[in-house]
């Protein structure tokens, strides 16, 4: 039994809960919407969300209410809300569960956000592979529209907010908010150069907010139970509420665990996820999806909140916690992640496009025991010339597996290179090819 109150996963954990509109209404669903629309000013909704301290759950952790506040107040034309459901970060699988198991919780959050920012149209950009999730959402939207929660004149208030589902086509980069907007407009999903930011020049060049699924699912609860209640959970004042942590890797019970922010990885892995699968010691973990630098057993008691994880040299990111046991080759682990990033680079900017290729080639050479000490300097130099020099944050993300494994497990790289040296002593004919 969980020691902490579930908020986002609570309904779906009830026996027999189907996620239908009728089931959702029985739990108090859409009551926050009834209490807000036409009864609270949109600015009051934004003020409550700001006061709650809610920060984005997609990766960047930007304060949600502040993001909404960037929309121009005097703009009279259309404005849009986009729900980022393009969950593609390796090791992250929470949004899928939220959409498939309790879709109305997400939809209520979307309509509340539309009301707060004055958007009459919202698009759920869902990862293309999530066929089931998109069908469930389509069905739920139909139910909500028929019941008057979505569409024109919601609940007789005269307020309009309609919602559409748009399936992506499998590109990781479309989870980056401006690439998502490009894709939604029917163009190739390439990140835009910023500024301008989506708040002023977003979808179809109109003011737009892009919020993650989990972020939006929190809104009905903040509105129903109050911002003070939400702000008292987790690690206030900067990391409030719960996170749905996605635990994967070498643990006995991988899965989604909703816990207050500030839980430690030790608690998450050993109290909730059943501990290590083969009782070997934990060797490494990624605290926030593949984009987050690796941490070590020394960091097991670091609080999983935005500030503490950043202070430890990584990031809370998407909440995907991937655990690796003793015996895992960290060079191999870094290469696997690097191959993913190489495959997913959109190619728009040369440091990322060319650099990811060079990083993969160099890593493969080391793994194949054809490396040399000079390769370690090459890797470091490449990483430094990618991070911070690209159009989007992907560049920073793709170097993190290599930089963090070089920092904590450099001896594993060196050992592979020494094995290469030994092999070449046995095969002197190859010595002339190496320096
Ligand atoms: S950093 Fe990579 S993914 Fe981002 S725009 Fe440049 S090439 Fe594309």
Describe this structure in words.
The protein is of the alpha/beta class. Helices cover 43% and strands 12% of the residues. The chain contains 18 helices and 10 strands. It has a 4-stranded parallel β-sheet with strand order 3-2-1-4, sandwiched between helices. Strands 8-7-10-9 form a 4-stranded mixed β-sheet, with helices on one face. 51% of the residues are buried. The model is unreliable at 430-435 (pLDDT under 50). The chain binds iron/sulfur cluster (SF4). Iron/sulfur cluster binds at residues 173, 191, 345-349, 352-353, 390-392, 394-395.
Please render the helix and strand layout as text.
Blueprint: H1 21-26, H2 31-36, H3 42-52, H4 64-69, E1 80-85, H5 94-101, H6 103-117, E2 121-126, H7 131-146, E3 162-167, H8 177-184, E4 208-212, H9 213-217, H10 219-225, H11 227-231, E5 234-235, E6 239-240, E7 242-249, E8 255-260, H12 265-272, E9 282-286, H13 306-311, E10 320-325, H14 330-344, H15 350-367, H16 373-386, H17 394-408, H18 410-426
Parallel strand pairs: 1-2, 1-4, 2-3, 7-10
Antiparallel strand pairs: 5-6, 7-8, 9-10
Helix pairs in contact: 3-6, 5-6, 5-7, 14-15, 14-17, 15-16, 16-17
Bound molecules: iron/sulfur cluster.
Iron/sulfur cluster binds next to α15 and α17.
Low-confidence stretches: 430-435
Widest beta sheet: strand line-up: 3-2-1-4
Number of helices: 18
Q: Cα distance, first to last residue? A: 59 Å
Whole-number mean pLDDT: 94
The major pleated sheet works out as: 4 strands, parallel
Bound molecules: iron/sulfur cluster
How much helix, percentage-wise, in residues? Answer: 40-55%
DSSP, total strands: 10
The ordered string of helix (H) and strand (E) elements is HHHHEHHEHEHEHHHEEEEHEHEHHHHH
Strand content: 5-15%
Q: Which word captures the global form?
A: globular
Secondary-structure content class: alpha/beta
Radius of gyration: 23 Å
């Amino acid at each position: 039994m969980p020691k902490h109150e579930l908020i986002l996963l609570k309904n779906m954990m009830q026996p027999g809960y189907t996620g239908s509109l009728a089931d959702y209404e029985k739990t108090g669903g859409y009551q926050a919407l009834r209490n807000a629309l036409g009864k609270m000013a949109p600015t009051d909704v934004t003020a409550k969300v700001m006061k709650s301290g809610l920060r984005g759950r997609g990766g960047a952790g930007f304060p949600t209410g502040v993001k909404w506040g960037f929309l121009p107040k005097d703009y009279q034309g259309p404005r849009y809300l986009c729900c980022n459901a393009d969950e593609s970060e390796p090791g992250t699988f929470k949004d899928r569960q939220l959409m498939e198991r309790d879709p109305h919780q997400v939809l209520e959050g979307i309509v509340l956000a539309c009301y707060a920012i004055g958007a009459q149209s919202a698009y759920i950009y869902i990862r293309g592979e999530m066929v089931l999730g998109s069908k469930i959402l389509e069905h739920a939207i139909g139910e909500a529209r028929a019941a008057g929660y979505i569409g024109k004149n919601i609940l007789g208030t005269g307020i309009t907010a309609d919602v559409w589902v748009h399936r992506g086509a499998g590109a990781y980069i479309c989870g980056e908010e401006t690439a998502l907007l490009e894709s939604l407009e029917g163009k190739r999903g390439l990140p835009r150069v910023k500024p301008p930011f989506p708040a002023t020049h977003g979808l179809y060049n109109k003011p737009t907010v892009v919020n993650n699924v989990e972020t939006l699912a929190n809104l009905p609860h903040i509105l129903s139970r109050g911002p003070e209640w939400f702000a008292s959970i987790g690690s206030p004042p900067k990391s409030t509420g719960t996170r749905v942590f996605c635990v994967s890797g070498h643990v006995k019970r991988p899965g989604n665990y909703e816990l207050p922010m500030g839980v430690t990885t030790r608690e998450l892995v050993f109290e909730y996820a059943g501990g290590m699968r083969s009782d070997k010691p934990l060797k490494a973990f990624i605290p926030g999806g593949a984009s987050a630098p690796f941490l070590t057993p020394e960091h097991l008691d670091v609080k999983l909140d935005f500030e503490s994880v950043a202070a430890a040299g990584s990031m809370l990111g998407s909440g995907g916690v991937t655990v690796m046991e003793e015996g895992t080759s960290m060079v191999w682990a870094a290469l696997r992640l690097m191959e993913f990033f190489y495959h997913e680079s959109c190619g728009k900017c040369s440091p990322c496009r060319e650099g990811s290729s060079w990083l993969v080639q160099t890593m493969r050479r080391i793994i194949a025991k054809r490396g040399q000490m000079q390769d370690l300097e090459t890797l470091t130099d490449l990483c430094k010339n990618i991070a911070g020099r690209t159009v989007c944050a992907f560049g920073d993300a793709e170097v993190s597996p290599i930089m963090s494994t070089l920092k904590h497990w450099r001896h594993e790289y060196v050992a592979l290179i020494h094995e290469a040296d030994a092999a070449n002593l046995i095969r002197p004919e190859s010595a002339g090819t190496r320096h």
